[in-house]
Amino acid sequence: xxxxxxxxxVIISGAAGGIGFAMARELGQxxxxxxxxxxxxxxxxxxxxxxDKEDIASITTTLDVTNYQDWQQTVDAAQQQFGGxxxxxxxxxxxxxxxTIEETNHKIWQWVVDVNLMGVLYGTQAVIPAIKQTxxxxxxxxxxxxxxxxxxxxSSAYAATKAAVVSMSEAWAVELKPHNIHVSVLCPAFxxxxxxxxxxxxxxxxxxxxxxxxxxKLKKSAGIAAELVNSGIDAQLLAKRVLEALDSKQHYIxxxxxxxxxxxxxxxxxxxxxxxxxxxxxxGHLIDEEIVSL
Length: 294
Hints:
Elements: E1 9-13, H1 18-29, E2 33-38, H2 41-53, E3 58-62, H3 68-82, E4 87-90, H4 106-134, E5 138-143, H5 156-176, E6 181-187, H6 215-230, H7 235-247, E7 252-254, H8 260-278
Parallel strand pairs: 1-2, 1-4, 2-3, 4-5, 5-6, 6-7
């Protein structure tokens, strides 16, 4: 049975384009009030104009997800304009710079961690109390990636943060269930977005005298990333898939079934590791111990 979203309000980070805007448009067409939050003010204005043309009720807020005060101001703006808040989509994310371990730029790594991981924490911490306040329940959707299900060589910062988002979502699903707040974690593979151009929004505090790396290598990796992203699915198709999944309360939302064997392979490796532990003369006896819930 399809969910009735009419009259409810959603806050979406990174809403000026890509997945964020596609979700805003899809949910707006379902009757939701939309809070478009993004760091890119120019693109944000264009997104707002596009929704206005479809008579979708929306407001915009300038949001740097690494700044908790920005999140608080976004919640205040949503409540002042629309009353209650019912859904949060933690969508804002950056790709970082692909490279070897030795080439890792610490400030760029910190940027990826702050946006992709801390931004999700800040958003959830700021918005969940507002959702609880309505007493109606609601939704928390965290945008991770298929990279969160399997490590990606040369993109360890991105993969690590997306794995963290998956883990946080698993924990929060249990914590928020008594409040009738459904938690989903979206793990797509390649989608037509501008994530390969995320350096365009690099805040000054993350810029380094060391620079981003060798220009020739950066140009090559950027070209490869662009090809992969442009080969992906359309963001609007992804948005429709999310609503389809929410109708049946799916926790993990996958968009690319062709990655099933890749993730299953990891599962088999983990199962083999448990078998090895069970067969170990050192720790095998622990198989009979009661599992303690953390």
